[in-house]
Amino acid sequence: MKVLPWPTLLPTLLSVGLVAGSLALYDGLVVRPSLRVGVVDVAEVYRAKEAEFTQILTRAPSEDDRQKALLMARAFAQRLPAALDELPRECNCLVVLKTSVAGAPPHGIDLTALLRSKVDRP
Question: Same domain, yes or no, for 42 and 84?
Answer without folding.
Answer: yes
